[in-house]
Amino acid sequence: MVDMIKVEVADLAGLSREQAAAFVRRRTAAEPEEDQSRPKLPTIDALNRVLPGGGLDRGAVVSYAGSSSPLLGMLAAATAAGEYTALINTPDRHGAVRSLHAFYELGGALSRLFAVNCPTDDDRLITVLHNLMDGVSLVVSELHPRLLPPSRAKILFARAASRRCTLVLLGPEHRIGGVDLRLSASCVGLEGLGPGRGRITAQTFRIEATGRDGRTRSGDFRKGPRPGGRMDWEWVEPSAEVIGLSTRAG
User: Fold this and answer.
1) Among 4, 16, 34, 103, which is most buried by a count of CB atoms within 10 Å?
2) What is the dihedral of CA 141, 143, 149, 152, to 10 degrees?
3) How many CB atoms lie within 10 A of CB 110?
4) What is the reported pLDDT for 122?
5) Which helix (H) or strand (E) holds 182?
6) Concatenated DSSP letters for 86-121?
7) How far apart are CA 250 and CA 230, in angstroms?
8) In sequence order, what DSSP letters do the residues of 229-245 get, joined into one string?
């Protein structure tokens, strides 16, 4: 909140209309402008390097497509920082148990995650989204395009902004207008595998972020083990020790 500009009657006494207007202009120019940047939601530290504005805006609407691991990492980072989040329908094709296990491995706090099961084409899902945005900081949901015509999208996005709740919609089909950010993620490398043997110990993901300005920023991020058995993220440069992949993996 910016304090109002205080003007005494004596300041304007005896001034012509032009002089009074000049006085007002000088006073408004001297006042610090209100910061128009939106507050940021805690997320994967390394990811901030490719996000417009250097972070994930609270109240932003995000379209997300691709590998589920970075998405679960975003949820985990938010809960680890004390934020409450919600995941509507699991993004992992192998089921909720695997998704929640990966979320925990990435440092997520299960006590701060609402896991909701609701058919993606059920009209009640919109009501669920509205209710969740009243109480959590980040909502991730699959959503059938039929449920989100432009008129309904406008209302939903406005609610996200007013509640300062970041809304992430899954799936490449969400090419609707009005989103603040588009994210896509793909697995481009694996570590720990040898010819016919080994086990995956780390993965490298390429994440592309496109903001409202149309600029796309991208970077590679490594998900690897840290002390205590959990996983962590770091910005990486391409390495010969990483096995490159030509297809997306979760």
Assistant:
1) 103
2) -40
3) 11
4) 81
5) strand 181-194
6) EEES-S-TT-HHHHHHHHHHTT--GGGEEEE---TT
7) 18
8) S-EEEEEE---TTSEE-
Q: Are strands 197-211 and 216-225 parallel, antiparallel or unpaired?
A: antiparallel
> What pTM was computed for the model?
0.76
The pair phi, psi for residue 102, each rounded to 5°, is -65, -40
Element (H, E) at 175: none
Burial class (CB in 10 A: 0-12, 13-18, 19+), 219: middle
Q: Which two tokens stand for residue 174?
A: 């969400």
* Residues 6 or more apart whose Cβ sits within 8 Å of residue 151: none
CA distance 109 to 181: 25
DSSP state of 147: G
Query: What was the pLDDT predicted at 98?
Result: 78
pLDDT-derived band at 242, boundaries 50, 70, 90: very low
Residue 133 is encoded by which pair of tokens? 């945005």
Q: Report d(CA 138, CA 112) in Å as an integer.
A: 11
Dihedral pair phi/psi, residue 246, rounded to 5°: -100, -10
CB-CB contact of 176 with 151 (8 Å): no
